[in-house]
Specification:
heterodimer, A: alpha/beta, Transcription Regulator spoIIAA, 4 helices, 6 strands, 44% helix, 23% strand, B: Jelly Rolls, Arc Repressor Mutant, subunit A, 2 domains, 4-stranded antiparallel β-sheet, 7 helices
């Protein structure tokens, strides 16, 4: 498990990666979070395991589209596009849903990334195809 | 976004034309060049509830496009004559894929629009008729106002009391009372193309 004051990430006993962002994020906290996620994704992939990711953004009060976040957004799109995951389920508020859906579209991975407004639906989708 | 619509078809539709019906399968993305499009649903009592007004430069239907639902969630109807571009969603997606600059612009656009959507929904849920009408005027100045001089803006969309009622989720009678009050205090003037004193509106 890896934990900072902005996010925590671990492999859930059920076998999927779980990441939780907490509080307002900075460009650094987002890119650090993405880096940590990539490490775990690659680790599970190398172990020939199915790579499922659950991301909780409900603890982030405000999602911004500020220019300061441009680099962080690009690193997210890049990893959505290139990393060897099977599926990512994200849950958060409306702004989160719009942002993640748009990034998944740009990455061309809309079939592998889905956004929900609650954990139950996110888990149901993540596990259903598992 | 102009670059993304370079190969789009151009269409012109008259006022009152419904472009998308609720429940319609959707495979295209529209971008307005001139004119205004209202987005609404029909309430159980048959009343029309206008959720949003799209203006030149706007793209729709974003909600179904982004979610990949492929089904229209609202009605989209021309409020004026509308000149627009139309491109298959699949083609737009293809052009967007991997284009980080256009992607960044698209992210800004979708986030801004969703924020405005949330503000509209929040305004619609207010309990005060006065607040609803004032919030609507702020919104219309932002989306369809043309600045006349410092502190005054004229709306480019012709609106009846019934239109304003549909935009606020109020009865026409209540809206008429609120508009009379705002006229008396000098916040609005004119009839169909309202002129709004934005400095007075800010203080209201």
């Amino acid at each position: 498990m890896s934990k900072t004051d902005k996010f925590e990430i671990f492999v859930n006993p059920s076998g999927f990666i779980e990441q939780k962002f907490i509080g307002n994020q900075t460009p650094k906290s987002v890119t650090d979070g993405v880096d940590q996620l990539i490490k775990l994704v690659r680790k599970l992939h190398d172990q020939k395991k199915q790579v499922l990711v659950l991301v909780d953004i409900t603890g982030v009060p405000k999602i911004t589209n500020s220019d300061a976040m441009r680099g962080a957004r690009r690193s997210m799109v890049k990893s959505m596009k290139e990393e060897p995951y099977n599926r990512i389920a994200v849950y958060g508020d409306m702004a989160t849903q719009v942002l993640v859906n748009t990034m998944a579209l740009i990455a061309g991975k809309r079939n592998k990334i889905r956004v929900f407004d609650n954990r139950i639906d996110a888990l149901k989708w993540l596990k259903a195809k598992g | 976004m102009e670059e993304m619509f370079r190969e789009a078809r151009h269409r012109r539709m008259p006022k009152g034309q419904i472009l998308i019906y609720e429940g319609d399968p959707i495979s295209n993305l529209f971008r307005i060049l001139e004119g205004y499009v209202k987005v609404y649903n029909i309430q159980p009592d048959g009343a029309e509830r206008i959720i949003f007004v799209y203006s030149p430069g706007d793209m729709f239907p974003l909600t179904s496009f982004l979610s990949g639902a492929g089904i229209g969630r609202y009605f989209y109807e021309c409020m004026t004559e509308v000149n627009f571009q139309i491109i298959p969603q699949a083609r737009f997606q293809e052009l967007l894929r991997g284009n980080l600059n256009a992607g960044e612009e698209f992210i800004h656009y979708t986030m801004d629009i969703s924020q405005q959507f949330l503000e509209r929904i929040s305004a619609l849920s207010s309990n005060s008729a006065h607040r609803k009408v004032v919030s609507l005027l702020h919104y219309l100045v932002e989306r369809a106002g043309t600045e006349l001089d410092a502190g005054a803006s004229k709306l480019k969309i012709p609106l009846t009391s019934q239109d304003i009622a549909d935009l606020c989720g109020l009865s026409r009678e209540t809206v008429t009372i609120q508009l009379s009050k705002l006229k008396k205090s000098g916040v609005i003037s004119g009839t169909r193309f309202l002129t709004i004193d934005t400095s007075k509106l800010k203080n209201d």
